[in-house]
User: What shape does this take?
Amino acid sequence: MPLIERETKTGNSRQVGDYNLTPLTQVLKIQTPGHHARFIWNRPKAIVVKTPDGQEQVLPVIDVTRIAIWAMLAGGLLGAIAVRILFWNR
Amino acid sequence: MTDEIIVNKRGEAGMDMVQDTMEEFLAAADVRAVYGEPIQHDDTTIIPTAEVLSGLFFGIGSGGGAGTDEDSSKPMQGSAGGGGGGGRVLSRPVAVVVASPEGVRVEPVIDITKIALAGLTALGFMVGMMFRMSSRRRSLPEIEN
Assistant: This one.
């Protein structure tokens, strides 16, 4: 097993009403040399929807909370840099 | 020699147990851990989704030694082994899949508290930088021509 492994897993399809739903997940596995520690990040990636007329649609699962948190922290960092530049020139 | 073999066997057994635990731990992080069981409500079915973060670590060691007792001058042997470890699994809701006769859609789960905390941290960082820079300006000596 490599030290860092990233894979997309497909779950079992479920029939919900007229739709056939297939879940997809993205797994990130990290392990230290010597196999003394392992870290797994498993998150939903998308849902594949099959309609009775045979059409297939992929609905991505977007983590709005994570995007908002990273945007806030990036904004704070950029804001701090902007404040530093502005005060430095005065 | 016999004790050394026993120590090695104990160590291997311990490693096997840890490896088995690791395998079970890895198996737990599959698709079923992320997508929950469907919840039926009238014509609508809801499937909760969550991200799972898990970490596991361990350490194991064993050793043996031989020597002689000063009083009886008999050869003495000893061995010992030990190990330890820990782990944690964190889970956080990400979205819900809503399947109704109108269609299938993914509704995000928004954690306002976490976003607000991140916003306050970012704001604090900016205000802190502002105070630091203004206090630095005040502390600089004025140069007279």
